[in-house]
Amino acid sequence: MTVFPEAADILVTNAHVLTMDDELTELPTGALAVSGGRITALGPSAEARRVRAAETIDAGGGFVLPGFVNTHCHAAMTLFRGLADDRPLDGFLKAVWAAEAAHVVPETVQAGAVLGLAEMALGGVTHVVDMYFHPSATVAAARKLGFGLTTGPVFIGFDGIDRLPWRERLRFAEEFVAEHRDAEGINLMLMPHSVYTLGEDQLGEIAALAAARDLPVHIHAAEAPSEMRLVAEQHGATPVRVLERCGLLRPGTLLAHAVHLDNAEIAMLAEAGVAVAHCPLSNAKLGSGMVRIADMKAAGVTLSLGTDGASSGNDLDMWKAMRLAAHLAVLSSGRPDALSARDTLFMATRGGAAAAGLGAETGMLAPGMRADFMVIRRDALHLIPSYDPYSTLVHAAGRDDVAHVVSRGRRIVADGRLTVPIEDEISAVRRLAARIRDGSEA
């Protein structure tokens, strides 16, 4: 622990702090000081009494833990929440892509992204890896809310809803990276959609760009049986093996879903330093299959959690994702300890930070780390008693228990409410939904 400073921007007191450090250090009556967007001190609450803070949060004995890192999302797809339910992945994509073609422009993306990021913030998420068209609109949404964002140019092998031919898409990618490379609060990844929407030459060009610009890569892979069949027809191999021969199975690559892997492929991911964003909500809802999470954990694959978009999972609730991930790991392996509460909370925090390439910045509470954390109330009946805080958080708590959220040293949720008004964006999304129901275009 550290010596508390004389002054701080934010001081959190009377907290049960879960640091999520290597030793899983807990401070049952702890305090946390923040200045300049960073944690400056962490220790017993009694030692922080003399700190003069611009803002003080009395946690009331509640839990303080790192903010969640959602490693796979399409925030703006709140626009299509519930539009294509009760369908497998291929049928879902057909319906959603048609709606996107008619209605997705930068203005609608920004409104939808504000709703998506706000929903996540209210549930304790402080950073998201977001893949969607018109990424500058999502950047604007994140800046409005003070939300941590990893995003980047999307690659698809045909003229997508943004109407960009391939060469223009590559040019846009270079321009987007140059514009946002050093942008405050924004981290970059290249975002190829999938093996089944890109040719191998195109995947190779993306790999070359990633190497030249020293950028990580995020891609959907091995999500559903229909994808596995299509990729076999197109490429004569599985998605993971196509990525390997295209130079994309490398450190810094983050695979979304990774449901259908054989033993050799799991070993390949571990050896290559590839991370996985496990999305149990959308996998279950679309009938995509059971992730071999216990086997990947045993192999040493970096594991994290994602919500996917609200069009496929219907909400952006990392608490549900944690609980379902733990339950499905037990169900698929037959072992009650397949994914412990500690392992699950680690995936949602430090695992997410590591998968996003931000392990030195966020996902853990320690001096010098980014001030990304949440305060959880402990007075709800479903949280009483609490014998094990990790079990309580993973198996009983939910987003309604989130009292305060601090992102990059800025309180973005206070007393369970957003600190930034979003009424205009809510109205815009409602108007768009009415047009979608009527069948009219944007």
UniProtKB/TrEMBL annotation:
Start and end residues of each Amidohydrolase-related domain: 63-411
Tell me its EC number(s), please: 3.5.4.28
- What Gene3D superfamilies does its record include? Metal-dependent hydrolases, Urease, subunit C, domain 1
Q: Which domain of life is it from?
A: Bacteria
**Transmembrane spans:** none
Q: Which CDD domains match?
A: ATZ_TRZ_like
The record's family statement is: Belongs to the metallo-dependent hydrolases superfamily. ATZ/TRZ family.
- What is the protein name stated in its UniProt record? 5-methylthioadenosine/S-adenosylhomocysteine deaminase
